[in-house]
Amino acid sequence: MFEKVLIANRGEIAVRVIRACKELNIRTVAVYSEADANSMHVHMADEAICIGKGPSSESYLRIDRIISAAEIADVDAIHPGYGFLSENAHFEEICTSCNIRFIGPSARAMMALEDKNVSRALARKAGVQCPPGSDGVIENEQDAKAVAAKIGYPVLIKAIAGGGGRGMRIAHNDMSLVTGYHTARAEAEKAFGNSGVYIEKFIENPHHIEFQILADTRGNVIHLGERDCSIQRRNQKLVEETPSPLIENKHRDLRKKMGKAAIRIAEEAGYSNAGTVEFIVDGQGQFFFLEVNKRIQVEHPITEEVTGVDLVKMQILIAMGEPIKLRDSDIAFKGHAIECRINAEDPFDDFRPSPGRIEMYYPPGGRGVRLDSHAYAGYVIPPYYDSMIGKLITFGKDRREAMDRMSRALAEYMITGIKTTIPFEQAILQDPNFRRGVYSTSFIEQLLTGGRRDLLEERA
């Protein structure tokens, strides 16, 4: 058993990891930037060490400072959370060289899935279909046009590194392809330090469905079902649910097929710890591999609610060398869960970030309601980081009950002093198409165009 774990992250995920450690009787060390001195995770941890100024480049992305803090605190392991250094193979190698266990996949597995282009090749080797596209990085405009001519418009230009919708552009003709190619490269270079992009066929109005996997260091791999993450704005997830309405209502055979495909990919990569295999599903029920997220996901709580499995505890146990004692047949999926990401943004002003001081904060509660957050009354949201301040999760015996609870919980959630996405998500929960489970990744874009935007604002 680990005696002490350092959490190399901030916000709600740092709080989530601290809670799991406390339940395992493991002492915790928080690292924080000057901007996060009053953050909840700093107060909750047994120890806390400041590692730099507000910008993440001077704090949460500084491997040297995090390792120094780990050595000063004499920790056994580091949990990276998500974002920041969570998928950095070099960070894992340094942790290992310092005799500190990294609670996540090995550097070897991360490098096997290092970028989307490499992981696509690995998926094909595992017998899993990918969207048609380029065989590697696109080096110039001419190559981009040649690939587009071969697979046909529309196409998607995608950064080989990172995520969150950055370095991604859709092109419908040669002119938008050239513009999108250069824009995506510049955005990817700024966000990830890697300007490489590739091109794949853009599948219109798909569902974005991911499978949660757990793998131990002894070769055991299981999946814990799917999450539908199709409700997105600018390719960033806003509402997630499990099980997927598409699979439940139209393509029940896909759960078994996609689950097996996710396991094959993890086995091919020699993967261990928690991870997520992401797919897109077209209107005909055909699925294609997208990428592997080599960390715990933001939306992991909804899987926990329907399976009863604590994924963060499992991460820690796997990192300690414990085998997974569950098998796929042991996972009992019960009920339905929905998560809304509560962001400090103005959804009716192009989702403009809204940092600042929270004046009043009243969290929702009641049966079937879970809130993972680091916010509180008087907390000042810094301008340096992701705008998410919490995740609201509801669980019900079926989808209708989970939706009704989410609508009620969103109405109870009171935050003043800043703008949040709460009213926007309330409107989504009232939308007839969402209620029926009839939606795709273009759902929000369609809501925000034409007369439907006025109706949306009226509902909000």
| Model regions low in confidence, pLDDT < 50 over at least 5 residues | none
Largest sheet, if any?
A: 8 strands, antiparallel
Strand order of the largest sheet: 13-12-9-10-11-14-21-19
Alpha-carbon distance between the two ends = 48 Å
Shape: globular
CATH class group of the largest domain: Alpha Beta
Topology (SSEs and partners):
Layout: E1 4-7, H1 11-23, E2 27-33, H2 40-44, E3 47-52, H3 63-73, E4 77-79, H4 89-97, E5 101-102, H5 107-112, H6 116-125, H7 141-151, E6 155-159, E7 168-171, H8 174-192, E8 197-201, E9 207-215, E10 221-233, E11 236-242, H9 245-249, H10 253-269, E12 273-281, E13 287-293, H11 300-307, H12 311-319, E14 336-343, E15 345-346, E16 352-353, E17 356-357, E18 360-362, E19 369-373, E20 380-381, E21 388-396, H13 399-412, E22 414-416, H14 422-430, H15 432-436, H16 443-447, H17 451-459
Parallel strand pairs: 1-2, 1-4, 2-3, 4-5
Antiparallel strand pairs: 6-7, 6-8, 9-10, 9-12, 10-11, 11-14, 12-13, 14-21, 15-16, 17-20, 18-22, 19-21
Tell me briefly what this model is.
The protein has helices spanning 11-23, 40-44, 63-73, 89-97, 107-112, 116-125, 141-151, 174-192, 245-249, 253-269, 300-307, 311-319, 399-412, 422-430, 432-436, 443-447, 451-459; strands at residues 4-7, 27-33, 47-52, 77-79, 101-102, 155-159, 168-171, 197-201, 207-215, 221-233, 236-242, 273-281, 287-293, 336-343, 345-346, 352-353, 356-357, 360-362, 369-373, 380-381, 388-396, 414-416.
